[in-house]
Amino acid sequence: MKGLYVHIPFCEYICHYCDFVKRVPTNDEMVDSYLVSLRNEINSYRKHFDTIETIYIGGGTPGMLKPHQLTYLLESLVHIHPVEYTIEVNPESYTHEKGMIFKKYGINRVSIGVQSFNKNLLAYMNRKHTNDEVFEVVRSLKELEIPYLSVDLIYAVPNQTVEDLKRDLNFIKQLDITHVSCYSLILEEKTFFYHQYLRGKFHKVEEDVEAQMFQITIDELTNQGFEQYEISNFAKHGHYSKHNLIYWSLDEYIGVGLGAHGFVNNVRTYNHRALSKYLKEPLERIEEQTQEMLLQDDLIFGLRKTKGIDIETIEKKYGIRLFEKYPGLKEKEELGLVEVKDNHLRLTHNGIFLGNQVFLLFI
């Protein structure tokens, strides 16, 4: 399977935790000129169009594009016919008109940036939407018969209580959607929260509280009929994110747009992160991957999936004996962090909480 990631770096405001490549545009002309360059870059990969099975438009905030800009973007992709076609939206910038454009161009999956249903936590993270807007987005998309809806949630936010989290998860139940991505708040450099941290004004949630919240999330979503198919991702009825599975399975994907990266023919591509440089020449550098680098990625990404990695496939692909190459795996198995089931190496329930201890074996 091959995917196409399309990056829209523009936001109406900057969230306090976000370290993605993004900026607030100064005017429409900045966005328009970017979309022209983006179309040119997309067309440079024309020979791949027939083999692309997923498109994921992320950001930034792709949903903030005005209808004519959104139409221009999607027209740039009309010669690709993916089985899964995703766009990210924020509730406050979505309109039913935009949803109709999604429908017209074949988008069948929408990822909604909710993060929390608590207005105080939303304000703390500099999020601008209301709960009513979240429900209206979901109602509109269902009316348009866009079948696969996903919501992003963040937990372990300073000042968030267990009751706050349970309330968020109850709202998920009310939305009746097919997919949820749940991430603990990570303190990233070059963010507002990180600057607050350096000033002693940001205090990370204790690890045991974070673990408790993660367990509550797993339990509650399981009770709602979701399957945890990846450490942070939950789906109903097997409606996994096909595009994200490409990353976790070390399949090929093309990355276009500011700061985007791709992986094709064992080569990783990295685009410029500065807009002025991207507009002149999107590609900054390429890195050919060695077998050792590929193996490391295959193991780390593959173990994020709850079904784990097929030992026989990995050993044939790289000409290794897995437990001989990584003798530390035996210790992790004895500690109850990994297990072998149906010839798959996978994280145990405890291992999901302590995955980094396993991943360090491969670095």
What would you say this structure looks like, in words?
The protein is of the alpha/beta class and 363 residues long. It folds into two domains: 245 residues, tm_1862 like domain (pyruvate-formate lyase- activating enzyme, Alpha-Beta Horseshoe); 74 residues, Arc Repressor Mutant, subunit A. It has 16 helices and 15 strands. The strands form three sheets. A nine-stranded mixed β-sheet has the order 7-8-6-5-4-3-2-1-9, sandwiched between helices. The chain has a three-stranded antiparallel β-sheet with strand order 10-11-12, with no helix packed on it. It is globular.
The gist of it:
The chain is 40% helix and 22% strand.
How are the SSEs placed, and which strands pair?
Layout: E1 2-8, H1 28-43, E2 52-59, H2 67-75, E3 84-89, H3 96-104, E4 109-115, H4 119-124, H5 131-143, E5 148-155, H6 162-175, E6 179-184, H7 192-198, H8 207-223, E7 227-230, E8 233-235, H9 242-248, E9 252-256, E10 261-264, E11 267-271, H10 275-280, E12 283-288, H11 291-302, E13 309-310, H12 311-318, H13 322-325, H14 328-334, E14 338-341, E15 344-347, H15 349-353, H16 355-359
Parallel strand pairs: 1-2, 1-9, 2-3, 3-4, 4-5, 5-6
Antiparallel strand pairs: 6-8, 7-8, 10-11, 11-12, 13-15, 14-15
Helix pairs in contact: 2-3, 6-8
Count of the separate structural domains: 2
Strand order of the largest sheet: 7-8-6-5-4-3-2-1-9
Spatial shape: globular
Which structural category do the helix and sheet elements fall into? alpha/beta
Number of helical runs? 16
The strand count comes to 15
The name of the CATH architecture of the largest domain is Alpha-Beta Horseshoe
> Which fold name fills CATH's third level, the topology of the largest domain?
pyruvate-formate lyase- activating enzyme
Q: Which stretches of 5+ consecutive residues score pLDDT under 50?
A: none
Calculate the mean pLDDT score and round it.
96
Helix percent reads: 25-40%
Largest sheet: 9 strands, mixed
What's the CATH superfamily of the largest domain, by name? tm_1862 like domain
Radius of gyration: 21 Å
The CATH class label of the largest domain is Alpha Beta
Straight-line distance between termini = 26 Å
